[in-house]
Amino acid sequence: MSEIPKHDIVMVGAGPAALTAAIYTTREDIDTLLFERGVIGGLAAVTDVIDNYPGFSTGISGLELADSLRKQAERFGAVIELGEVTALNDEGKYKRLQTTSGEILARAVLVATGSDYNRTGIPGEQEYYAKGVHFCATCDGAFYRDKRLVVIGGGNSAVQETIFLTRYASHIDILARSTIKASSVLVKELQPFIDQGKVSVNLGIKPLEIAGDANGVNKVLATNKEGKKVTFNTDGVFVFIGLKPNSDFLRGSGVKLSDLGFVLTDDNLETNVPGVFAAGDIRSGATMQIASASGEGATAALKIREYLEGRLHSTKVHQLEVIP
Fold this sequence. Notes:
Layout: E1 6-12, H1 16-27, E2 32-36, H2 42-45, E3 49-50, E4 60-61, H3 62-75, E5 79-82, E6 85-91, E7 94-99, E8 102-111, E9 115-117, E10 133-134, H4 137-140, E11 148-152, H5 156-165, E12 171-176, H6 184-195, E13 199-203, E14 206-213, E15 216-223, E16 229-233, E17 236-239, E18 243-245, E19 276-278, H7 290-308
Parallel strand pairs: 1-2, 1-8, 2-5, 8-19, 10-17, 11-12, 11-17, 12-13
Antiparallel strand pairs: 3-4, 6-7, 7-8, 9-18, 14-15, 15-16
């Protein structure tokens, strides 16, 4: 029977938080393995243009930023494996992780799994997934050149992705349950497209069903604020209604989660399980920004180093930062 692989640190996820942390740990010759089940760079990698990451005066594409972070981490020796961590158990000196590649042991673990797209749960959403229903404009927007689209959502991501989709679609209907809750900057950027008639904002709309035929999606059935049924003809639907934490693999691990499923940490970004840390969008209280995720990754790396050296718990009482 072969010996179970052991590592100093296993990072679950390979988004900006984990990649930044890996840059710090590997520069100090700390054995670091990252597991990523999706896209290296996380949701940042599928963001069209990132305008608010420091150091890029004209912005940078999410894919380019993610690729630069990956190359920098790998230059110092980080190993990134495509696969999924399905469970975590604390065994004292080592944490045992169940993965799609088999069991591995780690002296410390950084949970940096980020978040995933929320679903509406209405009929047709799953049936037409990738056949007319999408969650990433930069991934799938180009399929809808000169076609009509529906965007479900009224927050920052919905407005930002609508603006991106205008480069392809002939017309876009935004369906918002209440009001547009995006930042004033994004609303200002959207306004010219509304004035041109390329985007229509429909408020008080509750989507009921995404309907279509063998060729794909052709309409969204909904009710308006008066409760009357309305139909929006469309060639495709993009859903942007927020994010949910990727923390299912932690159920049963002993790591405490908030009511919404985000990971609770203390001021050192450590969970209630010694040696298990969290950074980025998965952490309760995170600001959901790429720059702050990178900052948390750097902080986590330094605290993990202290933990591995046996210095972290010698000067502090372990307290959780409980954020609603």
